[in-house]
Design brief:
2 strands; mainly alpha; 250 residues
């Protein structure tokens, strides 16, 4: 490794391989445990549908194939493994980023892992406790209005819940990435301010693609991303000023 602390291209590939293997092992271990306790996991995953089940008698979870429940169990075990192992995955991501930086830059990276995990679970919790229950009430309400029975495929339902939680958790990493770039001086707060309108439009575009086709979840994700964007600018501006002050003193 170079004296300045930079890694060679081959060392980057080796570092990436190590981080990927550790992340996959964590996902696999958590997925096996989730499959072992699939009854508990299933009860938890039914949570966002409880309000809709209580309100509408024409709503049922069904399977359309003999192996539907087994495939659903495998699917939900995998997604649960991804969500539960998120702390390890986030740690490995930031560790990989740190490995490619100069020594004086690596000191800042260790402060991003814990907030990254906290933000991930905050986003997942928002999807589970607020966005998904309201989305199901909104969408299934139209079936009730039209006197149409709602038969939800078990596999599709579980995939939707797990995917929404994972996406919300992932999108909540946005402010950390922004603050990190401003801390390194790669991007200035003024640059993010100039692209504020573009960021809002992009937030709604991503929300339309990544969330269920209802207004509630789309506005929730886009609104949260916009708020986090503004919060990251405020925090990043303070960090950038502190960085400039330290450089002036040196």
């Amino acid at each position: 490794m170079a004296e300045a602390g930079r890694m060679t291209l081959w060392e980057h590939f080796e570092e990436l391989r190590t981080r990927l293997v550790r992340s996959l092992l964590a996902v696999t271990a958590c997925a096996i445990i989730a499959f072992w306790k699939i009854e508990w996991v299933m009860e938890f995953m039914r949570g966002p549908l409880h309000d809709a089940l209580a309100r509408y008698d024409n709503l049922k979870l069904i399977q359309t194939k003999a192996h539907g429940s087994f495939v659903a169990a495998m699917t939900i075990a995998f997604f649960t493994g991804c969500i539960v192992s998120a702390p390890m995955i986030v740690h490995q991501i930031w560790a990989f980023v740190a490995a490619g930086l100069y020594r004086h830059e690596r000191r800042t990276v260790k402060y991003y892992a814990i907030p990254g995990v906290a933000l991930f679970f905050a986003g997942a919790a928002l999807a589970y406790y607020f966005v998904l229950p309201w989305a199901f009430l909104f969408l299934i309400g139209y079936s009730d209005t039209l006197s149409v029975d709602s038969l939800l495929s078990l596999n599709e339902y579980l995939s939707l819940v797990a995917f929404a939680m994972f996406v919300f958790g992932l999108m909540f990493q946005l402010p950390l990435v922004m603050v990190f770039l401003m801390r390194l001086g790669a991007v200035t707060p003024d640059t993010f301010r100039r692209f504020r309108r573009h960021a809002i439009v992009m937030s709604f575009a991503l929300a339309m693609v990544l969330t269920p086709p209802d207004v509630v979840s789309q506005i929730a994700l886009a609104g949260c991303m916009s708020i986090l964007y503004e919060g990251a600018i405020l925090v990043g501006a303070r960090v950038a000023r502190a960085r400039k002050s330290d450089q002036d003193q040196e």
